[in-house]
């Protein structure tokens, strides 16, 4: 394999000299201005105009009816699962090939993840794998709930993830989830700016979570958002993320256990500035993707591209090498050259906390785990 050509292609885009990070944040808008405005106002904490504006902006960008700000993507996903009605000892179908936060959020409730396979082309949960599992391993109880026949536990929700911003087959999965009475919670943490047809990722399932962590397409330092078209769910999400306080001019009365999960105004100030330049950021990232898609196949490298009918945000550009040995050799070569590259995550079922979770064959997940590498994908200034 021509590793030097890959590194050259990266350097042609990001610069001949110096260290090239995998993904650095880009502050090219009103970030400083809004942060100063926020500090001057004294409203730096969990109440303030930027938080409200952030929620409005998220509705506009995604086309969702409601958006609720959260302290981070993991908290947003945890809350989305609570709102979806997931309870202790329920099971939640997800993918083994994901960032650990997906599985952690499920575990916070005391629910059990079931890890199924992904599609090779989307890197996201495979509707066929889900359907196969549901057909063969579950039955409906008298309340029309989906029950895992092996464990007797209820399967309440399904959490697919749009890996690296490449949209998975969400419409197909929605149909299956609706048929089996399973709530579809999209882990859209990585996919701000990614679309399936005209619909933004996160708006096709019943509820979704986004992340605004420092390594994501746009950042609020730390932050997250829940989106849903369900008004009742949206109200409950706002209420539970703000300590479950019963509204009153001065009384402190909380009628259930709530969470301190609201995004602080100072983070929202940063987020608002970042969302203003999202189109510019996406365009720049697409140019990077196009340069990889154009150059790397010439030296025999498979580059993951958005599927027909979808739009990827190209958060992290992705190549698929021929074997684990080749992957390891390339990771060593590129990182030694100051070009930061990373493998995909260890499959969730190999982590100590999730080693006893139910899985299917995970054939594609295992294949991809050995071969996927992310290339530098920051905005080029
Ligand atoms: C980043 C990420 C999260 C969590 O977001 P944080 O803001 O870091 O808590 C969840 N799921 C996936 C797939 C992610 O990539």
Automatic annotation (TrEMBL):
Record PTM N6-(pyridoxal phosphate)lysine, positions in chain: 216
Class of the enzyme per the UniProt entry, highest EC level: transferase
Gene3D superfamilies, sorted: Aspartate Aminotransferase, domain 1, Type I PLP-dependent aspartate aminotransferase-like (Major domain)
Reaction(s) the record says it catalyses: GDP-alpha-D-perosamine + 2-oxoglutarate = GDP-4-dehydro-alpha-D-rhamnose + L-glutamate
GO molecular function: GDP-4-dehydro-6-deoxy-D-mannose-4-aminotransferase activity; pyridoxal phosphate binding
EC number: 2.6.1.102
Pathway where it operates: Bacterial outer membrane biogenesis; LPS O-antigen biosynthesis
The keyword Transferase appears for this protein: yes
Cofactor needs: pyridoxal 5'-phosphate
Active site (UniProt): 216 (proton acceptor)
Keywords tagged on the record: Aminotransferase, Pyridoxal phosphate, Transferase
One Gene Ontology biological process: polysaccharide biosynthetic process
Keyword Transferase: yes
Domain of life of the native organism: Bacteria
NCBIfam families listed in its UniProt record: NHT_00031 (TIGR04181)
Family: Belongs to the DegT/DnrJ/EryC1 family.
Annotated protein name in UniProt: GDP-perosamine synthase
The organism of origin for this protein: Fluviicola taffensis (strain DSM 16823 / NCIMB 13979 / RW262)
């Amino acid at each position: 394999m021509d590793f030097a050509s890959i590194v050259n292609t990266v350097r042609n885009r990001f610069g001949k000299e110096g260290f090239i990070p995998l993904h650095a944040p880009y502050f090219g808008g009103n970030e400083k201005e809004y942060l100063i405005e926020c500090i001057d106002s004294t409203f730096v904490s969990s109440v303030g105009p930027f938080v409200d504006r952030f929620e409005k902006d998220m509705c506009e960008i995604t086309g969702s009816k409601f958006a609720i700000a959260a302290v981070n993507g993991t908290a947003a996903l945890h809350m989305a699962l609570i709102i979806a009605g997931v309870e202790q000892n329920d099971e939640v179908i997800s993918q083994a090939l994901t960032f650990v936060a997906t599985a952690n959020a499920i575990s916070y409730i005391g629910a059990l993840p079931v890890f199924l396979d992904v599609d090779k082309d989307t890197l996201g949960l495979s509707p066929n794998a889900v359907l196969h599992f549901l057909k063969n391993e579950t039955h409906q109880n008298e309340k029309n709930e989906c029950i895992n026949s092996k464990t007797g536990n209820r399967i309440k929700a399904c959490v697919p993830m749009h890996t690296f911003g490449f949209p998975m087959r969400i419409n197909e999965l929605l149909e299956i989830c609706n048929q089996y009475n399973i709530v579809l919670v999209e882990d859209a943490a990585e996919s701000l700016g990614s679309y399936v047809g005209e619909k933004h990722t996160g708006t096709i399932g019943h509820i979704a979570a986004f992340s605004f962590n420092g390594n994501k397409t746009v950042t609020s330092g730390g932050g997250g958002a829940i989106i849903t078209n369900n008004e009742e769910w949206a109200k409950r999400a706002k209420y539970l993320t703000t300590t479950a306080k019963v509204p009153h001019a001065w009384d402190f009365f909380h009628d259930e256990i709530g969470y301190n999960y609201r995004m602080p105004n100072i983070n929202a100030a940063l987020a608002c500035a970042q969302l203003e330049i999202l189109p510019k950021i996406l365009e720049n990232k697409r140019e990077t993707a196009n340069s990889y898609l154009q150059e790397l196949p010439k030296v025999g490298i498979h580059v993951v591209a958005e599927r027909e009918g979808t739009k990827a945000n190209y958060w992290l550009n992705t190549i698929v090498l021929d074997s684990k040995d080749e992957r390891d050799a390339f990771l060593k070569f590129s990182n030694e050259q100051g070009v930061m590259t990373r493998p995909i995550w260890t499959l969730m079922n190999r982590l100590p906390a999730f080693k006893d979770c139910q899985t299917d064959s995970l054939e594609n997940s295992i294949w991809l785990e050995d071969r996927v590498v992310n290339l530098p994908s920051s905005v080029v200034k």
